[in-house]
Amino acid sequence: MLSGKDNSDFGWDEYRQLVVAEDAVWNSYISIRIISEAGQFRHCSFPYYDQLTTIYAKDRATRNA
Predict the structure, then answer these.
(1) Domain-located, residue 1
(2) Number of H helices, E strands in the chain
(3) What values do phi and psi take at 43, rounded to 5?
(4) What domain count does the chain have?
(5) How do residues 23-34 score in pLDDT, each as one tens digit?
(6) Burial class (CB in 10 A: 0-12, 13-18, 19+), 19
């Protein structure tokens, strides 16, 4: 949601740990998604986002050489 094509209107609220955007941006995003449940993330915080990013970020080493 925060990365990818045409998603520059979304942001991250570090204090509240949630995705933020204007109402019109959310409504547009939800209306074009195949799975309309994307709207559940509008008011949902991700308190472990930083920890998960540390573990799953693209720059982390893997067993694959």
Answers:
(1) no
(2) 2, 2
(3) -125, 20
(4) 1
(5) 998 888 888 766
(6) buried
